[in-house]
Amino acid sequence: MPKKPKTHSVQGLPLVAIELGSHSVRAMLAERLDVDLLHVLAYEESDKFACVDRGIVSNANNASFLINELLHLLSNRLNIETIPSAFTLIGGRDMQIVDVRAKRDLIHPRLITEELKEELRQECIDKIEKHNEGVGVFDAIPSYFILDGKEQDEELLPTQKAAVIEGHYTAFVGHKEAIGKLNESFNNAKVTVERTFVRPDAILSAISAEDSDILKEGCALIDFGAQTTTVSVYKGNEYLFNKVIPLGGWHISRFIEQQGVPFHYAERIKCMYGNASARFVEKDQVMTMPSNTSAEQEIRVTFKELAQVIEMKLSEMVQPALTALQPFMSRISRIYITGGGSMLQGLIPYIQERTQVSVMYGSHAYLLDRKTDDEYCKPKYTSLVGALILAGDWRAKHQDQ
């Protein structure tokens, strides 16, 4: 008789991140092996129901169903009895950044604890939401601290003391309803959200420690999602700019579909043979596909014709991103691209020609151990892997909770 598989206790649960994306709901489960090192144990994805519109939950009931479904599948994968909590991501078409600060006079020098930093962070959040009705703070991320009048260049150590502490934060803000809808989705699913991270902070994992000098000099990251494209500019530890463009790879597939091809074929040929421009097609070939109007008809399309169709919609996505970056070009030494939509062939030279700046793929592969399947090194997983890295750091700092 085979042995009954062991089940993990709740206390021993690995990290779980759930992303309610524009095209589907995705969940990844991983084990933290070390600081900035993960082993991905399982991944599930479902687009069974429409529940998200350009990064914002539009149907909380559908989202709740998919959250429960994915967690159940992950539980079965690892023979875990239950997964009661998860980390999640938020972004969306209306997200913007605001600089905000909080100051505390402690009278006498005191240790700068995580609890004290959290109080300053919460004070910044309350300050924004109190004076802006309908605005919610998705997250407030520290940029730098000033201790007793001296600006700190590095992250604060738990042994540092100060009588006066001033924290400067970058707050990611949007419609308060977006936060409410996200929380409603998890509440209905009876799943606790341990922490919600903003997508731009999670995709920073695409910039490796080896490129820390580039980060200090200034760089941009363009994240090509399904229904949104997120543009962020970083310099040192600060966010200089963030913009969400309500167009993504899903819109390209829909545009191909309008040429008479069923959507699932449009998505497939885009991923397998799509090119950012006909100029980058090295060998032209003909593809034969069924028509979406008649089962008896077939459509013949060449690689170059497909690229011409893609470029028409791609320009609508890329041009607003490059226009947004224009005021910062003198402060950018490199542009990184990531996200599921970034795998379009020829996208790097396409952007490089228009910016005259070095462009390369961001990669989170350095965060995954060698036993993790190579599939999870693809750019489409960057946000989830980044969320799990942030989740590991958060748990390490809040072990008493």
Short description:
With 401 residues, this protein is an alpha+beta fold. It contains ten helices and 18 strands. The longest helix is centred in the last third of the chain and has 23 residues.
> Percent helix among the residues?
25-40%
Strand order of the largest sheet: 3-2-1-6-11
- Please outline the major beta sheet: 5 strands, mixed
Mean pLDDT: 90
Strand content: 25-35%
Overview of the structural elements:
It is a single chain. The chain is α+β, with helices and mostly antiparallel strands and 401 residues long. It has a five-stranded mixed sheet, sandwiched between helices. A five-stranded mixed sheet has the order 14-13-12-17-18. A hairpin with a 7-residue loop joins β15 and β16. α1 packs across α3, α6 packs across α7 and α6 runs antiparallel to α8. It starts with 14 loop residues before the first strand and ends with a helix.
